[in-house]
C-alpha cells in the first residue's frame, strides 16, 4: 500500500501542469482501487463551483463543463462538510443530484473525499462503482491518505500551470508568510546552491551550440572520472561490484539520457536546465520501480546527474548579475547571498523556506527590503527573469497581475514612499510621549550597512549587535584582531552612544558553514551561550576582541544570548572578568563594560529576578521568547499562523520581566521584532520598559506613535489588553487604538484577490 501511494505521488509530481497531474491521479487511483470510475472535481475560486476536471470512467467531453455549487449534490456536500462520504447506493441519498450528460447513471457505490491544502478545500476526489456495496474501511483510508498526500502536489501543480502560461495568463497569487514589510515590483533572479539538480533555474539558451558543446564536454569528463575510479578499484572489487561502473557508464550513454538532454538543449533550454529536467524525470522513474534493487538505482542516477551538473557549473564562466529591481528568489536564502547584491538593485526577496522570524527575514527588515518567506508552493526554478510583485505586508507573491491590480500596487509603493518622507522629519526630534515621558529608541544591527541607516534614522544607541552576522559572512572563524576591527568600527560609528554586543549566537537557524551543527532539534539544542561556554577558546577570543575594541571609547555593553539558568550567567561572567583581567595585565586601559542577559527562554522569565540581581541589564528577545513559550518554530512556515507575539501568554511574560527588573532596580529593554511595532511599543512603554531596540526601518514609525500618545493612554491600553484572551483580540484592540490616535497609516489592510 505504502509503495503504491508513494509511486502515485511521485508520478503526479512529474506532471507538467494541473491537467496532467489530475489525469495521472484519476488513472492511477482507479487502477489501484480496482473501481470503475475515478474523478476529480476542482473548486474554481472565481465561480466557487466544483468543476469536473478529470475523470476515468465518466464522459470526458464534460471535463471543464459539468459543475456543482458548494453544498450541492454529494460532491458539494463532501466539499462543504470537509469529510468523506461513503455510500452503498448514492442515488438514494437525499443530497444526490444527477449531473446530466456525465454518464454516472450506472454507478451506485460512491466514495468521495475532500482534497484539502492549508485548510482550504481545493477539490473532491471520487471513486464510483456499479456494484451496490460500501467501500470498506481500508479503501476509505487509502483514498483519504491519497488525497492528503496529493493536496500539496495539486497546489503546486496549480501554481506551476500559471507560471508556464506566461504573458497574458491568469493572475495567480502564491501565499507565503510576511517577511519584511513593503511592496516590490521587479524581476526574479534565482539563487541556487551548487550542484543541486532540484534547484537549477530554467532558462533559454543564449547559444544552443555552445550549450550542447558544454554538455558533451561535461559528459566526457564524468565518463573519464568513472573509468579512472573503476580502473583504480579493479583489483579490489569483486566482479558484481565492478559491474556497477558499467551500469554507470551505460546510463551516461548518448543513446539514452544524453540524447534526451541534447534534444532538450536543441529545443532551446540551456544545458543545466535540460540536464536537471531529464535527470529528475529519470530519477523519479527509478524511484517508482516496484523492486527495491531497481529503486535504489535512483541514487546512482542522481549521483551521475549531480556530477555532470558540477562540471557544467564549473565551466560556466558567466557571472551572476543583479539588474536594477532584482527580486532575489531561492529555496533557502542566507545572509551571505543578501550581501552579494548591490543594495540599490535589491527590490525584494522571496525565500521558499523559512518564516517571518527567520534571521534572513530579520536582516531583510533591517535593510528595508520587502520580503516573502515560506512560499512553499512556488515553483521557483521556473521564475528566472519573470516579473513578480511582492506584498511583504501580507506575505504574498503575485504572478501575471492584471493592469488594474498592478496599478493598485504601484499606488501602494507611492503611498509607502510618501509615508517614509513624512516620517523623515522625525529623525532629529526626541522620542517622547505627549506628556514628555522619554523612551530611548535603539537599533538592532548586524551588517555594516545598518550603521549608516541607523544613524540616519536618529538611533540613540544599539540594543543588539548580532555578532554572528560577520561570522556568517566568512569561511572560518575571524581572528581576535579581525574581530577587534569589526567591533571597533561599530563602536566608533555610534560613540558616545552605547552599543550592545551580543556574544556569538549560532545554532538554531544560524549555521556557520565552517562549524556545522547537525541536530534533530536545533532550536532546542546546542545554541547561543551553550556553544560558547563549551568552547571557551571562542568565547574568550570574542570577549577580548570586544573589550579591546572599546578601549578609549567606553560605550560597549556585552549581552549573553539563550541564558536558561543562573549557572550559565555566572560562568559567562567569570570568563568575561577573566578576559578583562588578562587585558589589564597586558597593559590595556579598559573599563569593565555592563553585562546583560537576554531573556528569551521561558525559564529565564521565571528566574528574571535572580538574573537581574547578577546582571547589569536584562533585554527581552521576544522573537525566541515567542517561539519557546508558544512551542512554535519561528522558522517553519507551516505553523507561522500560530507564531504571534501578541499572544496573551507572551504579553504576560513581558510584563513579568519588566516587573522583575523594576524590583531589582535593573534596567530592562527589549530587542525582539515586537519592539518595532508601533502598537506594541505603546504597551511596552506602559509595562515600564526602559529602552526599545528595533530594526532601523521601524524607528521613526515607533517614534511617531509615541509622540501621539500620553502615558495615561498607554496605561489604559495596557489595562485593557492584558486581560484579552487571544492574540487576534489584542491585535484588533491595538489597531483600534492606532486609528483612534490618527495613526491608521501604520495598519496595512489586505488587498484581496488579484482579480
Ligand atoms: C530574539 O530572539 O528576540 C532576538 C532578538 O534574537 P535573535 O532574533 O537574533 O534570535
Ligand atoms: Mg534570540
Supply database-style keywords.
eight-stranded parallel β-barrel, globular, 4 domains, 15% strand, 26 helices, eight-stranded mixed β-sheet, Beta-Lactamase, alpha/beta, disordered C terminus, 755 residues, single chain, binds magnesium ion, Glucose Oxidase, domain 1, binds phosphoenolpyruvate, Enzyme I, Chain A, domain 2
What does this structure look like?
- The protein has four domains: 2-165, GAF domain (Beta-Lactamase, 2-Layer Sandwich); 175-190 and 331-418, Phosphohistidine domain (Glucose Oxidase, domain 1, 3-Layer(bba) Sandwich), CATH 3.50.30; 197-315, Enzyme I, Chain A, domain 2 (Orthogonal Bundle), CATH 1.10.274; 434-746, TIM Barrel (Alpha-Beta Barrel), CATH 3.20.20.60.
- The strands form three sheets. Strands 7-14-13-9-10-11-12-8 form an eight-stranded mixed β-sheet. An eight-stranded parallel beta barrel has the order 15-16-17-18-19-20-21-22, surrounded by seven helices.
- The relative contact order is 0.08.
- It is built from 26 helices and 22 strands.
- Helix 8 (271-287) runs antiparallel to helix 9 (292-315) and helix 15 packs across helix 17 (536-549).
- 46% of the residues lie in helices and 15% in strands.
- Helix 23 (678-687) links the parallel strand 21 and strand 22 (691-694).
- The chain has 755 residues and is α/β, with parallel strands linked by helices.
- The radius of gyration is 30 Å and the shape is globular.
- Magnesium ion (MG) is lined by residues 561, 600, 621, 623-624.
Amino acid at each position: 500500500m505504502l509503495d503504491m501511494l508513494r509511486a502515485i505521488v511521485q508520478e503526479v509530481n512529474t506532471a507538467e501542469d494541473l491537467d496532467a497531474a489530475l489525469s495521472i491521479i484519476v488513472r492511477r487511483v482507479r487502477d489501484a482501487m480496482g473501481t470503475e470510475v475515478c474523478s476529480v472535481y476542482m473548486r474554481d475560486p472565481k465561480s466557487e463551483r466544483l468543476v469536473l476536471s478529470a475523470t476515468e470512467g465518466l464522459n470526458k467531453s464534460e471535463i471543464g463543463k459539468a459543475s456543482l455549487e458548494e453544498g450541492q449534490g454529494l460532491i458539494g456536500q463532501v466539499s462543504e462538510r470537509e469529510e468523506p462520504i461513503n455510500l452503498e447506493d448514492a442515488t438514494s441519498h437525499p443530497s444526490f443530484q444527477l449531473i446530466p450528460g456525465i454518464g454516472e447513471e450506472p454507478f451506485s457505490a460512491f466514495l468521495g473525499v475532500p482534497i484539502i491544502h492549508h485548510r482550504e478545500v481545493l477539490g473532491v476526489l471520487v471513486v464510483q462503482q456499479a456494484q451496490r456495496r460500501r467501500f470498506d474501511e481500508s479503501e476509505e483510508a487509502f483514498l483519504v491518505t491519497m488525497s492528503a498526500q496529493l493536496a500539496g502536489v495539486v497546489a503546486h501543480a496549480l501554481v506551476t500551470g500559471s507560471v508556464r502560461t506566461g504573458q497574458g495568463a491568469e493572475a495567480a497569487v502564491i501565499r507565503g508568510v510576511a517577511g519584511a514589510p513593503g511592496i516590490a515590483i521587479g524581476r526574479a533572479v534565482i539563487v541556487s546552491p551548487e550542484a543541486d539538480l532540484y534547484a537549477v533555474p530554467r532558462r533559454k539558451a543564449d547559444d544552443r551550440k555552445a550549450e550542447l558543446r558544454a554538455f558533451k564536454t561535461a559528459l566526457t569528463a564524468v565518463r573519464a572520472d568513472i573509468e579512472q575510479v573503476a580502473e583504480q578499484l579493479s583489483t579490489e572489487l569483486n566482479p558484481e561490484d565492478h559491474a556497477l561502473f558499467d551500469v554507470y557508464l551505460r546510463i551516461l550513454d548518448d543513446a539514452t539520457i544524453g540524447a534526451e538532454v541534447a534534444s532538450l538543449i536543441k529545443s532551446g533550454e540551456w544545458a543545466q536546465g535540460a540536464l536537471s529536467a531529464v535527470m529528475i524525470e529519470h530519477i523519479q522513474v527509478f524511484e517508482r520501480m516496484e523492486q527495491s534493487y531497481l529503486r535504489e538505482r535512483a541514487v546512482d542516477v542522481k549521483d551521475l546527474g549531480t556530477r555532470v551538473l558540477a562540471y557544467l557549473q564549473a565551466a560556466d564562466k558567466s557571472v551572476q548579475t543583479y539588474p536594477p529591481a532584482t527580486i532575489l528568489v531561492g529555496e533557502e536564502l542566507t545572509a551571505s547571498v543578501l550581501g552579494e547584491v548591490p543594495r540599490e538593485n535589491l527590490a525584494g526577496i522571496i525565500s521558499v523556506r523559512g518564516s517571518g522570524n527567520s534571521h534572513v527575514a530579520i536582516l531583510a527588515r533591517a535593510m528595508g527590503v520587502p520580503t516573502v518567506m515560506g512560499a512553499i508552493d512556488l515553483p521557483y526554478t521556473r521564475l528566472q527573469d519573470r516579473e513578480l510583485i511582492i506584498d511583504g505586508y501580507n506575505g504574498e507573491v503575485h504572478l501575471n497581475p492584471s493592469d488594474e491590480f498592478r496599478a493598485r500596487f504601484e499606488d501602494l509603493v507611492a503611498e509607502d514612499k510618501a509615508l517614509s518622507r513624512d516620517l523623515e522629519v522625525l529623525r532629529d526630534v526626541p522620542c517622547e510621549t505627549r506628556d514628555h515621558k522619554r523612551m530611548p529608541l535603539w537599533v538592532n544591527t548586524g551588517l555594516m550597512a545598518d550603521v549608516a541607516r541607523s544613524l540616519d534614522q536618529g538611533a540613540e544607541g544599539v540594543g543588539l549587535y548580532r555578532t554572528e552576522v560577520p561570522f556568517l559572512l566568512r569561511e572560518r572563524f575571524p581572528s581576535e584582531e579581525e574581530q577587534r576591527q569589526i567591533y571597533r568600527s561599530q563602536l566608533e560609528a555610534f560613540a558616545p552612544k552605547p552599543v550592545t554586543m551580543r556574544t556569538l549566537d549560532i545554532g538554531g537557524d544560524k549555521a556557520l558553514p565552517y562549524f556545522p551543527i547537525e541536530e534533530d532539534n536545533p532550536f532546542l539544542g546546542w545554541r547561543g551561550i551553550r556553544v560558547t561556554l563549551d568552547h571557551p577558546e571562542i568565547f574568550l577570543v570574542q570577549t577580548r576582541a570586544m573589550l579591546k575594541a572599546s578601549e578609549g571609547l567606553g560605550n560597549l555593553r556585552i549581552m549573553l544570548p539563550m541564558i536558561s539558568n543562573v549557572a550559565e550567567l555566572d560562568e559567562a561572567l567569570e570568563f568575561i572578568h577573566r578576559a578583562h583581567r588578562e587585558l589589564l595585565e597586558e597593559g590595556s586601559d579598559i573599563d569593565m563594560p555592563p553585562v546583560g542577559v537576554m531573556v528569551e527562554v521561558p525559564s529565564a522569565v521565571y528566574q528574571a529576578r535572580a538574573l537581574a540581581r547578577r546582571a547589569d541589564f536584562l533585554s527581552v528577545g521576544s522573537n525566541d521568547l515567542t517561539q519557546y513559550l508558544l512551542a512554535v518554530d519561528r522558522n517553519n512556515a507551516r505553523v507561522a499562523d500560530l507564531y504571534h507575539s501578541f499572544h496573551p501568554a507572551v504579553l504576560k511574560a513581558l510584563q513579568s520581566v519588566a516587573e522583575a527588573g523594576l524590583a531589582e532596580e535593573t534596567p530592562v529593554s527589549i530587542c525582539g521584532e515586537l519592539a518595532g511595532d508601533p502598537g506594541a511599543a505603546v504597551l511596552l512603554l506602559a509595562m515600564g520598559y526602559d529602552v526599545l531596540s528595533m530594526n532601523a526601518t521601524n524607528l521613526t514609525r515607533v517614534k511617531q506613535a509615541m509622540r501621539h500618545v500620553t502615558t495615561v493612554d498607554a496605561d489604559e491600553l495596557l489595562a485593557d489588553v492584558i486581560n484579552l484572551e487571544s492574540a487576534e483580540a489584542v491585535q484588533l484592540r491595538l489597531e483600534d487604538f492606532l486609528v483612534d490616535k490618527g495613526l491608521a497609516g501604520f495598519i496595512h489592510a489586505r488587498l484581496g484577490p488579484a482579480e
